[in-house]
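Notes, p. 3: input format for complexes.
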Amino acid sequence: MKRFLFIIGSIAGLTAFFAFAPQKPRVARTGKELFERYCKQCHGKDGTRGLFGAKNLQTSLLADDALYMTIAKGRKVMPSWEKKLDSTEMGLVVEYVKTLRK
Ligand code: HEC
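Output follows (102 residues plus heme C):
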């Protein structure tokens, strides 16, 4: 009987654990937050900083797919982001970069 109660107790405990376990926290969610975290140091908040020859993102005219590939694969000094950001996050960054254009 004790053993039986132990098993029931364990199942209830595990169920409660999975039901109430906190979701994995996601820190940055918007394109702006991602940009300010990962891109600002070279490109600047408004896209014009140009550190290490970083392209001015206000005058960049890349199409969405080229923008996405640049972010995913990187270019010269610019690192590749595909291991750090998932495709949704890279999509958000693409949308945000376009809002910097003048
Ligand atoms: C370590 C500095 C650095 C960081 C961090 C960085 N970049 Fe860059 N980025 C560069 C450099 C340098 C270039 C120019 C590469 C070249 O000469 O072709 C560039 C080019 C680009 C271009 C191409 C623009 C064009 O018109 O050709 C885009 C778009 C871009 N970066 C977006 C981003 C985004 C978005 C992030 C953040 C996820 C980011 N970069 C992070 C340095 C950086």
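The chain has one domain: 28-99.
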